[in-house]
Amino acid sequence: MTARYIFVTGGVVSSLGKGIAVASIGRMLKARGLKVSVLKLDPYLNVDPGTMSPYQHGEVFVTVDGAETDLDLGHYERFIDMELTSLSNATAGQIYSEVIEKERRGAFLGVTIQTVPHVTSAIKERITNLARQSGADVVVVEVGGTVGDIEGQPFLEAIRQMRNDAGRQNVFYIHVTLLPFLRSTEEVKTKPTQHSVQALRAMGIQPDAILCRTDAPVVDLGVRQKIGLYCDVPVENVIGLPTLDTVYDVPLVLEEGGLGKALVRSLGFPDVEPALDGWRGLVNLVRQPKEIIEIAVVGKYVDLHDSYISVRDALLHAGWHNRRQVQVNWIPAELVEQVGPERLLANAAGILVPGGFGERGINGMIDTARYARSRKVPYFGLCLGLQIMIIEFARSELGLPKAHSQEFDEHTPDPVISYMPGQQKLKATGGTMRLGSYPCRLREGTIARAAYGTELVHERHRHRYEYNNDYRTSFEEAGLVASGTAPDDSLVEIGELLGHPFMLGTQFHPEFASRPDRPHPLFKAFIAAAARVLREGGQHRMPIEPEAASRVHTV
Ligand code: GLN
Predict the structure, then answer these.
(1) Nearest to 190 by CA among 392, 371, 11
(2) Which of 243, 320, 400, 411 lies at a C-alpha separation of 20 to 30 Å from 159?
(3) Does the global pTM surpass 0.90?
């Protein structure tokens, strides 16, 4: 059977939650037994977001096959509960490089290379290739950016052409817009949506449905009728999407708004009842009142929470399944250097140091690890967070005051975290890093093994530096054990400290694998340990000073 395509564009402003809408559509279709795949088209010229600062782009999401991709893929994976690959993210940078490389090879046989048809064909090839490779019934394609962006035009032209290529009945266009809500008059305005749809039509695309994001509590029938009239969309396909208390409610709200029905009817799929009871149970769990537990995340890019979006979600998931509401306290590592960990971390039931690159804030993270270790506060280190824990332990417990990672001190006499040339050549699938999923064997009798409840796991990596095996015996003898290693024992993947309630770090990024209804076992164990220590009266508590507190961001 030919694949069906749903194209989702955005209008009026960016950051409307288009990615969440696409992820929700994926879940609604999967709930009808359809095989879904998803593609994010990013009109920027970077080949991938791996080279962008998190401040520019937010988190870099890593797929199992080692692609560095847009953070929306994280939403897709979490909502649809599937593992995506490099096929699910295409950037303008990749498309143009591919076209130009082909031109240099002489593969175009002397013709003039143009945006239309050559660039648009390369874009369409990415879309149809995903359909072929995944064997999906429906491919949902999100076009990044906002209608009207210059760099987005080839992408809009490509999805316009897809209607003829794939057959009109097999293609559905959804436009996500904003209805500004004016508090003074308590009304929503439709004009920006009308303009945005005009701009879309100027590109030759008539939307089949419009999703109206708004801060108003509801979008009433009159407003929907007006939009329907001006934009030539049946009123039942104009669907309101108010701001919700949890993004996980979006699939249910869109379903209630009739989007699922509209999609299957228009695309010729059987109109079956979607199996969303499990999802409803999840949303109920999210909404149940729960005891709050504060987790401090000490990192470099905490000012922009999107930099650690999978970490935040993984913490929330783990909280819900421990009957706790995690409150994340974002603490800039540099602030720890300035005011000391005692003043910033006193209220944290658990401390997490996430991944990161570069020297800024490293000492603050090391101080944080020392604080967590000596006060027995549960500590979870992700990638860089493991390396920090190793460095701190070497300095404080192995009598190696200059121990460091070669990333931060090339000439350290004790490179406890080191660059392993050869290792990268062997294992890298892109860029210069160790990227993607690798197996990890868990040692019997450890916290990690108990948490996973199995011996062999696969987790995603994105790093250049590694635990240095030359120091392994010293670490092990002092109580910092390798609880997870590569199956051939050549690399340490998890370290944990004996005699501590939970001081554990992973060289991989477990956050990418967490699901709202299936939290990651290590995150779950971390929150459980934090809750336990808190219940037992946590040793380290002291009041936070107002001046320091005011500089700490809480969500
Ligand atoms: N900068 C460290 C490395 O390259 C850690 C990377 C990370 O935390 N993702 O090994």
Answers:
(1) 11
(2) 243
(3) yes
